[in-house]
Amino acid sequence: MAKIIRRTPVNLILIGFMATGKSTVAQALAPGLGFEAVDTDALIVGRAGKPISEIFEEIGEEGFRGVESEVLEELLPRERLVISTGGGIITRPGNIEVLRSLGMVIWLNAGIDVIMDRVAGNDERPLLQTDDPRKSMEELMAGRLELYRQAADDCVEVDNLSSEELAYGIAESARVWFAGRH
Ligand code: S3P
User: Fold this and answer.
1) Which residue's alpha carbon is nearest to atom 11 within ligand 1?
2) pTM higher than 0.70 for the full model?
3) N or C: more exposed end of the chain, with fewer CB within 10 A?
4) 148-176 residue pLDDT tens
Protein backbone atom coordinates (compact mmCIF):
# COMPACT_ATOMS: atom_id res chain seq x y z
CA MET A 1 0.00 0.00 0.00
CA ALA A 2 1.36 3.45 -0.92
CA LYS A 3 2.32 5.59 2.06
CA ILE A 4 0.34 8.77 2.57
CA ILE A 5 2.52 11.59 3.89
CA ARG A 6 0.34 14.33 5.34
CA ARG A 7 1.07 17.99 5.69
CA THR A 8 -1.70 18.44 8.25
CA PRO A 9 -1.96 15.73 10.89
CA VAL A 10 -5.58 15.08 11.64
CA ASN A 11 -5.82 12.29 14.17
CA LEU A 12 -4.81 11.75 17.77
CA ILE A 13 -2.94 8.53 18.54
CA LEU A 14 -2.42 7.07 22.01
CA ILE A 15 0.58 4.82 22.54
CA GLY A 16 2.06 3.32 25.69
CA PHE A 17 2.56 0.18 27.68
CA MET A 18 -0.20 -2.36 28.41
CA ALA A 19 -2.80 -1.22 30.96
CA THR A 20 -1.98 2.49 30.80
CA GLY A 21 -5.62 3.19 29.91
CA LYS A 22 -5.22 3.99 26.20
CA SER A 23 -8.59 2.67 25.02
CA THR A 24 -10.54 4.04 28.01
CA VAL A 25 -8.95 7.48 27.56
CA ALA A 26 -9.64 7.34 23.79
CA GLN A 27 -13.34 6.70 24.51
CA ALA A 28 -13.40 9.59 26.98
CA LEU A 29 -11.56 11.94 24.59
CA ALA A 30 -13.28 11.36 21.28
CA PRO A 31 -16.74 12.93 21.86
CA GLY A 32 -15.36 16.27 23.11
CA LEU A 33 -13.17 16.61 20.02
CA GLY A 34 -15.91 15.41 17.70
CA PHE A 35 -13.64 12.50 16.75
CA GLU A 36 -14.36 8.76 16.52
CA ALA A 37 -12.50 6.38 18.87
CA VAL A 38 -10.91 3.32 17.25
CA ASP A 39 -8.70 0.70 18.85
CA THR A 40 -6.16 -1.33 16.89
CA ASP A 41 -6.53 -4.41 19.14
CA ALA A 42 -10.31 -4.32 18.66
CA LEU A 43 -9.84 -4.05 14.87
CA ILE A 44 -7.51 -7.07 14.95
CA VAL A 45 -9.92 -9.11 17.09
CA GLY A 46 -12.80 -8.14 14.80
CA ARG A 47 -10.88 -9.18 11.72
CA ALA A 48 -9.67 -12.49 13.15
CA GLY A 49 -12.95 -13.30 14.90
CA LYS A 50 -11.03 -14.50 17.97
CA PRO A 51 -9.41 -13.04 21.08
CA ILE A 52 -5.80 -11.86 21.12
CA SER A 53 -4.67 -14.78 23.27
CA GLU A 54 -5.90 -17.20 20.57
CA ILE A 55 -4.28 -15.17 17.79
CA PHE A 56 -0.94 -15.39 19.64
CA GLU A 57 -1.41 -19.16 20.12
CA GLU A 58 -2.16 -19.73 16.45
CA ILE A 59 0.20 -17.38 14.62
CA GLY A 60 2.59 -16.24 17.35
CA GLU A 61 3.72 -12.73 18.17
CA GLU A 62 5.27 -12.20 14.71
CA GLY A 63 1.98 -13.11 13.02
CA PHE A 64 0.07 -10.80 15.36
CA ARG A 65 2.51 -7.96 14.61
CA GLY A 66 1.93 -8.43 10.88
CA VAL A 67 -1.84 -8.02 11.27
CA GLU A 68 -1.29 -5.09 13.66
CA SER A 69 0.83 -3.25 11.05
CA GLU A 70 -1.78 -3.90 8.34
CA VAL A 71 -4.61 -2.59 10.50
CA LEU A 72 -2.56 0.51 11.36
CA GLU A 73 -1.70 1.30 7.73
CA GLU A 74 -5.34 0.92 6.74
CA LEU A 75 -6.15 3.86 9.01
CA LEU A 76 -3.88 6.21 7.00
CA PRO A 77 -6.60 7.61 4.73
CA ARG A 78 -8.91 8.30 7.68
CA GLU A 79 -9.30 11.52 9.66
CA ARG A 80 -10.69 12.76 12.97
CA LEU A 81 -9.95 9.57 14.86
CA VAL A 82 -8.65 9.00 18.36
CA ILE A 83 -6.65 5.80 17.82
CA SER A 84 -5.70 3.67 20.81
CA THR A 85 -2.99 1.14 20.04
CA GLY A 86 -1.56 -2.10 21.44
CA GLY A 87 1.46 -1.58 23.70
CA GLY A 88 3.87 -3.31 21.32
CA ILE A 89 2.91 -1.43 18.15
CA ILE A 90 6.13 0.60 18.26
CA THR A 91 8.30 -2.55 18.09
CA ARG A 92 7.74 -3.16 14.37
CA PRO A 93 10.12 -1.25 12.13
CA GLY A 94 8.04 1.13 10.05
CA ASN A 95 5.11 1.52 12.44
CA ILE A 96 6.57 4.60 14.12
CA GLU A 97 6.63 6.44 10.80
CA VAL A 98 3.02 5.44 10.14
CA LEU A 99 1.94 6.54 13.64
CA ARG A 100 3.60 9.92 13.19
CA SER A 101 2.08 10.32 9.76
CA LEU A 102 -1.40 9.68 11.18
CA GLY A 103 -1.35 12.66 13.54
CA MET A 104 -0.38 13.81 17.02
CA VAL A 105 1.08 10.91 19.01
CA ILE A 106 0.61 10.93 22.77
CA TRP A 107 2.47 8.51 25.03
CA LEU A 108 0.60 7.44 28.17
CA ASN A 109 3.23 6.39 30.67
CA ALA A 110 2.68 4.62 33.99
CA GLY A 111 4.94 3.22 36.70
CA ILE A 112 5.53 -0.53 36.85
CA ASP A 113 3.65 -0.87 40.18
CA VAL A 114 0.53 0.77 38.77
CA ILE A 115 0.66 -1.47 35.70
CA MET A 116 1.22 -4.60 37.81
CA ASP A 117 -1.84 -3.76 39.93
CA ARG A 118 -3.95 -3.25 36.84
CA VAL A 119 -2.98 -6.49 35.12
CA ALA A 120 -3.12 -8.68 38.23
CA GLY A 121 -5.41 -11.68 37.69
CA ASN A 122 -6.01 -10.78 34.06
CA ASP A 123 -5.02 -13.46 31.52
CA GLU A 124 -5.78 -11.48 28.35
CA ARG A 125 -2.17 -10.41 27.74
CA PRO A 126 -0.17 -13.29 26.32
CA LEU A 127 3.21 -11.60 26.81
CA LEU A 128 2.65 -11.57 30.59
CA GLN A 129 1.63 -15.24 30.86
CA THR A 130 5.06 -16.18 32.19
CA ASP A 131 6.48 -17.54 35.45
CA ASP A 132 7.54 -14.06 36.48
CA PRO A 133 5.21 -11.45 34.93
CA ARG A 134 6.91 -8.54 36.72
CA LYS A 135 10.29 -9.49 35.26
CA SER A 136 8.73 -9.93 31.79
CA MET A 137 7.13 -6.52 32.14
CA GLU A 138 10.40 -4.89 33.19
CA GLU A 139 12.23 -6.45 30.25
CA LEU A 140 9.57 -5.39 27.76
CA MET A 141 9.48 -1.90 29.25
CA ALA A 142 13.28 -1.54 29.10
CA GLY A 143 13.26 -2.48 25.41
CA ARG A 144 10.39 -0.16 24.56
CA LEU A 145 10.92 3.10 26.43
CA GLU A 146 13.19 4.57 23.78
CA LEU A 147 10.74 3.57 21.01
CA TYR A 148 7.82 5.27 22.79
CA ARG A 149 10.02 8.34 23.18
CA GLN A 150 10.90 8.35 19.47
CA ALA A 151 7.27 7.98 18.39
CA ALA A 152 5.69 10.52 20.74
CA ASP A 153 4.99 14.24 20.34
CA ASP A 154 3.97 14.46 23.98
CA CYS A 155 4.11 12.27 27.10
CA VAL A 156 1.53 12.13 29.89
CA GLU A 157 2.17 10.46 33.26
CA VAL A 158 -1.10 8.66 34.01
CA ASP A 159 -0.52 7.48 37.61
CA ASN A 160 -3.17 8.93 39.96
CA LEU A 161 -5.25 10.53 37.20
CA SER A 162 -8.72 9.40 36.14
CA SER A 163 -9.49 8.82 32.47
CA GLU A 164 -11.69 11.97 32.52
CA GLU A 165 -8.82 14.08 33.90
CA LEU A 166 -6.47 12.61 31.31
CA ALA A 167 -8.96 13.20 28.51
CA TYR A 168 -9.41 16.84 29.55
CA GLY A 169 -5.65 17.54 29.62
CA ILE A 170 -4.93 15.71 26.38
CA ALA A 171 -7.79 17.46 24.57
CA GLU A 172 -6.32 20.83 25.59
CA SER A 173 -2.84 20.01 24.27
CA ALA A 174 -4.32 18.50 21.12
CA ARG A 175 -6.28 21.69 20.35
CA VAL A 176 -3.14 23.79 20.75
CA TRP A 177 -1.10 21.35 18.69
CA PHE A 178 -3.64 21.09 15.87
CA ALA A 179 -4.14 24.89 15.82
CA GLY A 180 -0.39 25.37 15.32
CA ARG A 181 -0.49 23.18 12.24
CA HIS A 182 -3.48 24.55 10.32
C1 S3P B 1 0.67 -6.05 23.65
C2 S3P B 1 -0.31 -5.24 24.21
C3 S3P B 1 -1.73 -5.56 24.09
C4 S3P B 1 -2.01 -6.39 22.84
C5 S3P B 1 -1.13 -7.60 22.81
C6 S3P B 1 0.35 -7.24 22.82
C7 S3P B 1 2.09 -5.69 23.86
O8 S3P B 1 -2.50 -4.35 24.04
O9 S3P B 1 -1.80 -5.63 21.68
O10 S3P B 1 -1.43 -8.39 23.93
O11 S3P B 1 2.96 -6.22 23.15
O12 S3P B 1 2.37 -4.83 24.72
P13 S3P B 1 -2.69 -3.35 25.31
O14 S3P B 1 -1.54 -2.40 25.29
O15 S3P B 1 -3.98 -2.66 25.02
O16 S3P B 1 -2.74 -4.20 26.53
Assistant:
1) 88
2) yes
3) C
4) 999 999 999 999 899 999 999 999 999 88
